[in-house]
Design a protein that fits this description.
The protein has helices at 2-11, 15-25, 35-62, 83-90, 93-96, 111-124, 134-146, 150-159, 175-188, 205-209, and strands at residues 100-104, 129-133, 162-166, 193-198. By secondary structure, the chain is α/β, with parallel strands linked by helices. The protein folds into two domains: 2-61, no CATH class; 63-209, P-loop containing nucleotide triphosphate hydrolases (Rossmann fold, 3-Layer(aba) Sandwich).
């Protein structure tokens, strides 16, 4: 009967429960626990396995450039980081309310690391995340438009709860790139959160975008 139960659990894709049940049967004092307690332990194992698998899928899909997490963020190095602000961002409320985060500063201060750490935390909180370098994203959108799949590409970006755009404003945009970028931003405005990371001062962004009327 035990063997049949294990096979059925695997067939139902409840492998963690199956492994947990086998482990329980090898514990000499397991009978000291009630049926409800043993079942609760098995359910906890399966729940944890499902959570970890979903997190793994979100992290894989996120394409984060660096393996980073907020716990590894060095707040002692003087980079203009506010501990209280980092703690607020770690809560994820800014993602729930569709706010944006700007990370600016010279090369080497850790903008990409911070962006990826925030993305990792968002994935842990259950949010779909996508990291893209802006120049590469614009190239991909141009290719998608030529191939007739641009609507699907824009829809995917709009659905992503946290979009990280690195190397923001590094290139001066063409009219087509400006149109595509504004469509992405407009789709996300007040609907989803965005991180912009750039070494270009905010005062120079309008020059790079190429249209002073864009705000």
């Amino acid at each position: 009967m035990l063997h049949q139960t294990i096979e059925k659990l695997h067939a139902l894709k409840l492998s963690a429960m199956a492994d947990g049940l086998l482990a329980q049967m090898k514990q000499p004092d397991i009978e000291a626990l009630t049926f409800e307690e043993r079942l609760a332990l098995l359910v906890d194992l399966q729940h944890t396995a499902a959570h970890d698998a979903a997190l793994g899928q979100r992290l894989k899909a996120s394409n984060l450039r660096q393996t980073a997490c907020l716990e590894d963020l060095d707040l002692r190095t003087p980079r203009g980081l506010d501990r209280g602000l980092i703690q607020t961002l770690a809560s994820g409320q800014w993602i729930r309310t569709a706010r944006s985060v700007l990370l600016t500063g010279p090369t080497g201060v850790g903008k990409t690391f911070i962006a990826c750490a925030l993305g990792h935390q968002a994935a842990r909180d259950g949010f779909p995340v996508l990291y893209r370098r802006l120049p590469r994203l614009l190239d991909d959108l141009a290719i998608a438009r030529v191939e007739g799949r641009h609507r699907r590409a824009f829809a995917k970006l709009a659905r992503t709860r946290l979009l990280i755009l690195d190397d923001w404003a590094m290139i001066r945009l063409t009219a087509e790139q400006r149109r595509d970028l504004m469509e992405v931003i407009d789709d996300r405005h007040d609907r989803a959160a965005t991180i912009l990371a750039s070494q270009i001062p905010v005062s120079s962004w309008f020059d790079q975008i190429g249209d002073p009327t864009v705000s």
